[in-house]
Write a structure and sequence with these properties.
It is built from seven helices and three strands; from the N terminus they run ααβααββααα. The chain is mainly alpha-helical.
């Protein structure tokens, strides 16, 4: 096999993306742990429920939204249940399925954690870019996601804000 090696320009782009992929999760996780006592994955789980109708999703839908396996999600939801932030119950439409619902304490936790999380995202990503670069980042993300998610399995997750209206603060 004749491997088409990365040229210097491609290597510079790849190494920078790789550094972002390494550094950003730690920054987001540290802020959420310090300010809200949540891991970044726990926050994304709670945020996903906060945006769902009735703050409720089937565990399978929540797993898809968070790109987690059901066993991983179940373990995290069990921890969140112990903290009183989430509750699980049989799905009324399909008793074989399980729903997860944000509790009042979980909703309060998301609303408390969201401003610091957004400020961290803004400080380390959005404010580091010009308006044009933010649009370019969206286009770059779309191009990479088309290669990573060619079936579009997760497209509902990463295109949910493509509509005309801005999301509600704290949602």
């Amino acid at each position: 096999m004749d491997t088409p090696w990365l040229d210097r320009r491609e290597l510079r782009a790849w190494i920078r993306l790789r550094a972002v992929l390494e550094l950003l999760p730690g920054v987001l996780d540290a802020q959420l742990r310090n300010d809200a006592g949540l891991t970044e994955f726990e926050y994304q789980t709670l945020a996903g429920l906060s945006e769902a109708p009735g703050h409720t999703l089937r565990m399978t839908a929540l797993a898809q939204q968070t790109n987690a396996t059901l066993p991983r999600l179940s373990h995290v939801v069990a921890r969140l249940e112990k903290r009183g932030l989430v509750e699980r119950f049989p799905c009324p439409e399909d008793r074989r399925a399980t729903n997860a619902r944000l509790t009042e304490a979980g909703w309060a936790g998301v609303r408390q954690a969201a401003p610091g999380h957004v400020a961290t995202v803004r400080r380390h990503v959005i404010d580091a870019l010009t308006d044009e670069q933010v649009d370019q980042l969206t286009a770059i993300g779309d191009a990479i996601l088309a290669a990573l998610d060619s079936s579009g399995r997760m497209s509902a997750v990463y295109t949910r804000y493509d509509g005309a209206h801005d999301p509600e603060p704290g949602a």
